Amino acid sequence: MVEEDPSSMSLRPGKTAENSDGMAESTNDRTRDKPAAMENKEDLTGFNVIYTVTQATGALLVLLVLIWCDKYRGGFAWAQPASRFNWHPLLMTVGMVFLFANSIMIYRGLRSMRKKQLKLVHAGTHSVIVVMILIAQIAVISFHNQLNIPNFYSLHSWLGILTMLIFFFQYALGLVAFLFPGLSAPVRAAMMPYHIYFGITAFVLAIATSLMGVTEKVFFVLDKPEMPADQKYSSLPAEGVLVNVIGMLFAIFGILVVYMVTHAGYKRYPRPEDNVLLTGVSE
Predict the structure, then answer these.
(1) CA dihedral sign of residues 225, 226, 229, 234
(2) How far is CA 11 from CA 7, 20, 25, 195, 282, in A?
(3) Distance between CA atoms of residues 164 and 161, nearest Å
(4) How far apart are CA 189 and CA 187, in angstroms?
(5) Considering the chain, what percentage of its residues have pLDDT values greater than 70?
(6) Who's near 106: CB < 8 A, 6+ residues apart?
(7) Burial group, residue 26, by CB count within 10 angstroms (0-12, 13-18, 19+)
(8) CA 175, 179, 184, 185 torsion-angle sign
(9) Residue closest to 50 by CA, chosen among 270, 267, 245, 253
(10) pLDDT per residue over 59-100, tens digit each?
């Protein structure tokens, strides 16, 4: 069998135009695809540093809230009303701030993990947050009821309700749309921008609500008429300084997280295996 000379193929009738057009079309396709590929290129410059600083800030925030509640507010116990209340700021900080942030950053921080595993970790983290929210709300409501304090009258509580409603709606819709049973790919693609937007919105609201909560609490405990003048909040005692530092960390952590999840270069772009459903069947 004689090998065909590639140069002779261009002389074959009916092949010249076809091959030339095909090569031109292929070249044009590559040219058109090149900008798109460049647009989707991940740029991780500074990612590790910012991610580490963000995690350290969040961990320090949780630690200082723990110290505040334990050292200055009587510690943690369920039998005593004041100690029971302390579960509220701690669990809401751990759940609705630190874990929530890590859940929405997971697609950046664990970008090498397969998409279906990321979905499970994302949903699992949100499930833990739901449990923490419920315990935290039981703690604060039972504390109020036992001491005859009205519930849900402050702006802090109203904004907290709005935040939780958005969070729970996102949680339920995300489970149905993206996990079980999972909607069709076009529907999920159409929903994704809204899912991302309202997820970030809920996180920002959680930061704002937390800032209102710690401010409200410090005024309640440090501005009582019977408090000595040098222990009042306006005199900036040690507890007041600690609460101010906690508030600053809430704000800094929120800024860092929003930057991480909105930076285009840090986005996890689709992998070939991303279209495989949790069942293992390709879409």
Answers:
(1) negative
(2) 8, 12, 20, 57, 43
(3) 5
(4) 5
(5) 82
(6) 118, 121, 122, 125
(7) exposed
(8) positive
(9) 253
(10) 999 999 999 999 999 999 999 999 999 999 999 999 999 999
Residue 39 sits at φ, ψ, to 5 deg, of: -65, -35
**Which string of DSSP letters, residue by residue, matches the chain?**
-PPPPHHHHTTSTTTHHHHHHHHHHHHHHHHHHHHHHHHT----TTHHHHHHHHHHHHHHHHHHHHHIIIIIS----SSSHHHHHTHHHHHHIIIIIIIHHHHHHHHHHTTTS-HHHHHHHHHHHHHHHHHHHHHHHHHHHHHHHHTTPPSS-SHHHHHHHHHHHHHHHHHHHHIIIIISS---HHHHHHHHHHHHHHHHHHHHHHHHHHHHHHHHHHHHHHS-TTS-GGGSGGG--HHHHHHHHHHHHHHHHHHHHHHHHH-GGGS-PPPGGGGB-TTS-B-
Buried b (16+ CB within 10 A) or exposed e, 89-120: bbbbbbbbbbbbbbbbbbbbbebeeebeebbe
State the distance between the two ends of the chain, measured CA to CA, in whole angstroms: 44
Q: Residue 56 is which amino acid?
A: A
The predicted model scores a pTM of: 0.82
Please report the sign of the dihedral spanned by the C-alpha atoms of residue 64, residue 261, residue 194, residue 274.
negative
> Structure tokens of 132?
């923490």
Q: Which two tokens stand for residue 258?
A: 């929003």
Output the pLDDT for position 153: 96
* Residue 40 main-chain phi, psi, to 5 deg: -90, 5
